[in-house]
Specification:
7 strands, alpha/beta, five-stranded parallel beta sheet
Length: 171
Amino acid sequence: KNEIVFDPFLGSGTTAYEAESLNRDFIGIDIQKKLINHVGKNIEPKKNFSELIVGDSKRTETFEKVKGVLKNYEKKSVQLAILHPPYADIIKFSDLEDDLSNSKSLKEFLEKFSEVLKNTIDILEDARYLAIVIGDKYSAGKWIPLGFYCMNEAQALGLTLKSVIIKNMAG
């Protein structure tokens, strides 16, 4: 309780709501202001510390805002990061050029995702955890294991793989 959960892909706010229900503090980023506004209206005021930031999680300028929030907080880093990025180009989330769902190739998606990872690792407390939540995709009759590709990006940045959890989405 009272540790900070961080989500650089806030989206509809699932991580924020779960952090709140478990008495965790929360910092979230999303590239879409309308999502930040929506989630902000649904978080219970003053129940826990929460900060929602409009920005691009690939950019260090966005993370300077996060560091500013952390500087004014008793903990100077986050204890858990949960990254639930777009599943490459399966669903287009916005028309914003910097939105990962608008990546023109798998290579570009992974390069952009790696930038988010670097920024997140920079604010993650040592010996804490970073979880990647992502599904795979099919394209032109081929399976594309996005989860494994994203794990490879994380390992290339020095993170240690602790586990793989596969959820069967049948039905």
